[in-house]
């Protein structure tokens, strides 16, 4: 039984935290929570934040405290095995070997292999299990998925403890079996991915938690070093116990998602985390970028839709089903592969994680090269997080404030990224080349100064995607980092062993290789360019290309030749011809003459469910607007009204964002609306009626309206007028999207008459792409079909009607049936899909504010 919710949870691309129920139509107002609910929300949010903070702190401190002791115990076991074979006299009465004797090449190579392959097995399991457990968290709940990690953490610790406690029974390499424990819950990657996603949804202070974690790392490393001097088992047991106890805090987490509920979301007594999140009331839902490009090409769409209508009863083959499932599985992540900037920054994450693999052996490197004990080396490393705290609290914020005086935030982040990666490369190279601790410490300082790189990169890459895509982006980042861990565990381990074999200065070979990788990342970051505009600006004029001298001459010539023909033809039609008692065919022919003067002849018409070249078939005529139907068109140019009149001969009406009534317009008035300021409501003297009255008055003609209520540049679809929800019962509403090539004939800024005429008459030709969507029919709730058409149509997911779409509704072959109050939302989604645009939350009244600001800086003519 499907969930009664506008946002199905059974989707790969659903966020970790379910979003709150949203109004099903733009006219349905949201009811705010009561005071008691607000207080409960505040307490729930506080409880969640404290629990997550305690989990992060406990696990981070526990893992950090146990790293040094684990290395020392591994070294002790490998050392004892080595001397038992080659020189048993070095083994003391207590069965141990002095630590300074364990710095020989063979022991250190064995230790590096054990640690390196441990990271390899951990990383490969985490990478494989990250997405499946992420989907499980989406479908079964966050709390239950995190709780699965508890036995995984406990079993991992127990296996290692047994092997380390009884090395006479189990070989040291048996500790690799502990990686199998991550089959329960997916390991730290899954646990921390869910924790940080929940944290980011309820708090905007992630950096403070990070600084607190760094301070805890410093304290735990220092304490661990002191306890290691007494007995390495003390900090080991204390650290692992603390980490496991921290995971048990997951049992007290509030569940953030309801699965299988039969009640609508807004009726549930438990709190939605979208309400717990700060600023939730300001959030407006817009389609993601993959919805913008959900159909890779119009021809593929049409062919797929034709196939869906002719093969509904056919059972899909195994390979076809596998193909459809794989496409549906990866479709939510397709937005990443279409953006070169995102791909470049993700590569930086991968290489950064690969390069950071050398830090696993840094304590061992210091101990081996400079003849320090592991406790002393671990104590030196404890100062690294202590140095990071002032970097994040004071240094980076101070530099950011200075840069923000002359740069935009994204440019500031990019500049800091470039500086950070340079410091990482120089510092890491210094670590590998340092002949003494006196040179090592400054190199560590320089490297630590660049540790903000990964956080700056995450901040910059987040600006390149929509808010609803952020969780998926973070999942990909975690998977890439896991893959980087896998590669690093093999490559760094091998290179470190080679360095140990060569001896001398070559012991730092792994850090020399790491510095080279950082340098390659730095080159890529220096080549990175911030896109000129990462968001959607639906009211900005389309930039006009620069012209060469011959192009200017051609433009001026065409404009001067066409203008004397264009003006008389327009005057003749709108002042005289349209009032003559002629047929619809005669009016259409006259309008095509007007379109012909600027050479608007090339029209690419495609209709949902119709293969190219078969539109003349009689069985497809019901897919086109006709008498008694409504045309809901995009609105970008005066040509919109002219083209619709020349093809469909409709009755034009104007609609408004604040009322369900309309005002009848002539074709000329509809054209002029493309140059006019948006109107939030009808003029006092306007003669407004409802749609039913207009349709009864003109039963033999379609009704055309522009539901966005004002023009845009075609990049975004504004919230639609509520008038669509008042259409007569079971009236077909056809979404129609018009796009132009070149795009400079759009008029998003009011009053641009001369600019439009210059672009229209100066170009050699113009090209129109017309996309007509499947008709939308509003019905009552009891009239909706009880079955889901996609259950019988395996190819429906290829046609834009898959389970991945929030606006999915049962549909017939020629129309989609939705609740009447949901018609505006569905039509808006269809216009966005057909026009390759995105839905935006800005409205027509907000355009008035934009126009005021625009005219202060630019001339409009």
From TrEMBL:
Sequence intervals crossing the membrane: 48-68, 144-163, 175-197, 209-227, 233-253, 342-366, 386-404, 416-433, 439-461, 473-499, 505-528, 552-577
- The domain of life is Eukaryota
Topological relation to the membrane, as annotated: Multi-pass membrane protein
Q: Name one GO cellular component term.
A: membrane
Q: Does the keyword Transmembrane apply?
A: yes
> Which keywords belong to this entry?
Membrane, Transmembrane, Transmembrane helix
Compartments (UniProt record)? Membrane
**Span list, region Disordered:** 1-40
Keyword RNA-binding, does the record have it?
Answer: no
**Where is it chiefly localized?**
membrane
Molecular function terms, GO-annotated: transmembrane transporter activity
What protein name is recorded for this chain? MFS general substrate transporter
